[in-house]
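Thread amino acids onto this structure.
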C-alpha cells in the first residue's frame, strides 16, 4: 500500500514537471517563428475599437475571422481588454501596441512602465486556457513619421528601454520582444536606388540608439509599408510594379534587378541598416496592405491582386536581391476590418483597408492560413433594422448640400471621394448617401434623419450598383442581452454548486 502511494505521488510529480517544462520553455515562440513554412509568418493587424463607430465584437472576430481562417498571429494597436479576453486560450500569437500618446510618460517613469506591464501584459498571461500568447510589445504607432516632427521622437527609445526592464523584472523578457514600428519615411534613397538607401538625416542619433537597443535584445526592426501612397507619390513606377506583376519593367541597380516595389523597399532598408553597421538585423513588416475604396485604384480587384502577389512572394521564400532566401521574418497584413472613424487626412481610402468589410464579410479571397479554402465570414452578426435615411425629393432642396456636408463631417462619406464606389452617384443620390451614413452612425435615431425636414426614413434599399448604402451593427443593446444571459448562467451555476455541496455533505 505505502509503496503504491509513493509511486503514484512520484508519477504525479514527474507529470507535473513535464507539463511545467513544456509550458515554460522560454523563447519557444521565436523558434516557432523561425519555422520554414511561409503561411505561418503572416499575421493581421486588428484595429482599435475606437477607430470604428460600431466595431464588430471581439466575440465574433476571434472565432470567425481569426480561428476559422487559421490566422496564427495578430497585432493590436492598444491593450483592448475585450479583444485580449477573446484571444485568451486561442494560441494566436499577439502583438500588443502602446499608443504614441503614452510614450512620454513611459520614457520618463520606470514605475509607469511597470504598471503598464502589470495591467496590460502580466494580467493576461494566465487563466482561461493558458491566457493570451503575447509575443511582442509594440512601442508606439510609427512615432518617427516625418509629419510628427519631434512630438514623439525623443521618448521612443526611453519608453522601449523602460518597458524592456519592466518585463525583465517580472521574468518575461525571454517570452516576448519589444519592438518599434517605423514608417517607411525613416529611410530614403537617391533616384529610387535601393543600394543608395540611408536613414533620414534628422533621425541619425535616435536611429543609432534604437538599433543598438534592438540588437542588444535580439529584437527585429519593424517597418510599415504603404504601397498605394508610394504609388500615388512616385509616378516613376507602374501599378503593375506594385502588384508583383511579372511583366512589369524591372529597376536595375548595379548587378541587381528589382522586379517589384516590395523588394525595392526591403533592400533600401537593408542598405540603410548596413550603412550604420546592422546589416544582419532581422526585419518584420508591421503593416502592409491595399485599400478597396475611397480613391483611384483602390478596388477589391486590385487589392486582391496585390495580396496574392504579396502572399505568393512571401511563401516562395525567395527574399530580395540583397537578402536572397531570407524574406521578412513576419509580415502583418493591414488590415482585418474596415474602420469608419479613421482619419482621412491621407485620403478616403484610410477607412477601407479591411480584408473584411466592417461587418466581417470577406471582400475577396486570400490565403490567411486557411489554405485553399474560401475565407470564412463572421456569423451571427446583429444588424439594426432594414431602414435607411434618404433625401425627401418632395421638399424644396436648395439648402440640401450644406446639410450633406455637415453630415459628412461626422459620418463616413469616403465612398463618395473621387474614384470611390459611390463617386458616380449623381445629386441628390449622393446627398442621400450622406444622410444615411449619418443616420446609421447615430443608431437610426429618428432625429438623426431630420436635416431640417429634408430627410425621410425608408425601408427601400437605395443601393445602386457597387455603391452600398449600409445598415450598421447593433452594438450596445446586444451586449446587454448577453450580459443578462451570463448573469442567469451564473445563478444556475451557483445553484448547482450548492446542490453538489449538499450531496457531498450528505455522504
Ligand atoms: C493599459 O492599456 C490601456 C489601453 O492602451 C491604457 O488605457 C492603460 O492606461 C494601460 N495601463 C497602464 C497602467 O498604463
Ligand atoms: C523619376 O525618373 C526620372 C527620370 O528617370 C528621374 O529624373 C526622377 O528623379 C525620378 N523620380 C524619383 C522620385 O525618383
Ligand atoms: C545628424 O543630424 C543632424 C541634424 O540633421 C546633423 O547636424 C548632424 O551632422 C548629423 N550627424 C551625422 C553623424 O550624420
Ligand atoms: C436655406 O438656408 C438659409 C440660411 O441658413 C435660410 O435662411 C433659408 O430659410 C433656408 N431655405 C429653406 C428653403 O429652408
Ligand atoms: C453631390 O453632387 C453634387 C453635384 O455633382 C456636388 O455639387 C455635391 O458636392 C455632392 N455632395 C456630396 C455630399 O458629395
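Threaded sequence (507 positions):
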Amino acid at each position: 500500500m505505502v509503496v503504491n502511494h509513493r509511486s503514484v505521488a512520484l508519477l504525479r510529480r514527474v507529470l507535473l514537471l513535464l507539463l511545467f517544462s513544456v509550458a515554460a520553455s522560454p523563447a519557444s515562440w521565436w523558434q516557432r517563428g523561425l519555422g520554414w513554412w511561409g503561411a505561418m509568418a503572416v499575421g493581421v493587424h486588428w484595429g482599435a475599437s475606437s477607430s470604428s463607430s460600431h466595431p464588430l465584437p471581439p466575440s465574433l472576430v476571434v472565432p470567425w475571422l481569426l480561428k476559422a481562417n487559421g490566422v496564427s498571429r495578430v497585432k493590436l494597436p492598444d491593450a483592448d481588454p475585450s479583444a485580449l479576453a477573446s484571444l485568451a486560450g486561442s494560441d494566436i500569437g499577439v502583438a500588443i501596441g502602446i499608443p504614441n500618446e503614452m510614450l512620454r510618460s513611459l520614457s520618463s517613469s520606470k514605475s509607469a512602465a511597470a504598471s503598464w506591464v502589470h495591467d496590460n501584459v502580466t494580467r493576461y498571461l494566465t487563466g482561461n486556457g493558458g491566457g493570451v500568447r503575447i509575443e511582442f510589445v509594440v512601442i508606439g504607432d510609427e512615432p518617427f513619421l516625418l509629419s510628427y516632427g519631434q512630438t514623439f521622437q525623443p521618448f521612443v527609445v526611453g519608453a522601449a528601454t523602460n518597458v524592456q526592464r519592466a518585463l525583465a523584472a517580472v521574468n518575461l523578457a525571454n517570452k516576448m520582444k519589444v519592438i518599434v514600428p517605423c514608417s517607411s519615411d525613416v529611410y530614403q534613397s537617391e533616384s529610387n536606388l535601393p543600394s543608395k538607401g540611408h536613414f533620414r538625416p534628422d533621425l541619425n542619433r535616435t536611429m543609432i540608439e534604437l538599433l543598438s537597443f534592438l540588437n542588444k535584445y535580439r529584437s527585429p526592426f519593424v517597418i510599415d509599408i504603404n504601397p498605394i501612397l508610394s504609388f500615388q507619390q512616385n509616378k516613376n513606377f507602374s501599378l503593375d510594379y506594385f502588384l508583383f506583376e511579372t511583366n512589369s519593367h524591372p529597376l536595375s541597380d548595379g548587378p541587381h534587378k528589382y522586379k517589384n516595389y516590395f523588394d525595392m523597399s526591403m533592400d533600401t532598408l537593408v542598405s540603410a541598416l548596413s550603412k550604420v553597421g546592422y546589416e544582419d538585423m532581422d526585419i518584420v513588416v508591421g503593416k502592409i496592405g491595399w485599400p478597396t475604396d475611397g480613391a483611384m485604384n483602390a478596388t477589391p480587384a486590385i487589392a486582391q491582386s496585390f495580396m496574392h502577389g504579396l502572399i505568393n512572394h512571401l511563401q516562395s521564400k525567395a527574399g530580395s536581391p540583397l537578402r536572397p532566401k531570407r524574406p521578412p521574418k513576419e509580415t502583418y497584413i493591414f488590415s482585418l476590418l474596415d474602420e469608419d472613424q479613421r482619419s482621412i487626412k491621407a485620403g478616403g481610402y484610410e477607412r477601407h483597408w479591411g480584408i473584411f468589410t466592417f461587418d466581417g464579410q470577406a471582400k475577396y479571397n486570400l490565403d490567411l492560413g486557411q489554405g485553399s479554402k474560401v475565407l470564412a465570414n463572421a456569423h451571427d452578426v446583429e444588424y439594426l433594422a432594414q431602414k435607411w435615411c434618404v433625401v425627401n425629393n418632395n421638399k424644396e432642396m436648395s439648402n440640401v448640400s450644406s446639410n450633406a456636408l455637415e453630415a459628412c463631417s461626422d459620418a463616413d462619406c469616403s465612398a463618395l471621394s473621387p474614384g470611390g464606389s459611390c463617386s458616380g452617384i449623381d445629386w441628390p443620390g449622393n446627398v442621400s448617401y450622406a444622410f444615411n451614413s449619418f443616420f446609421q452612425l447615430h443608431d437610426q435615431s429618428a432625429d438623426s434623419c431630420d436635416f431640417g425636414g429634408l430627410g425621410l426614413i425608408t425601408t427601400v434599399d437605395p443601393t445602386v450598383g457597387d455603391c452600398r448604402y449600409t445598415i450598421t451593427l447593433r452594438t450596445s443593446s446586444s451586449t446587454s442581452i448577453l450580459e443578462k444571459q451570463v448573469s442567469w448562467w451564473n445563478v444556475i451555476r451557483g445553484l448547482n454548486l450548492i446542490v453538489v455541496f449538499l450531496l457531498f455533505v450528505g455522504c
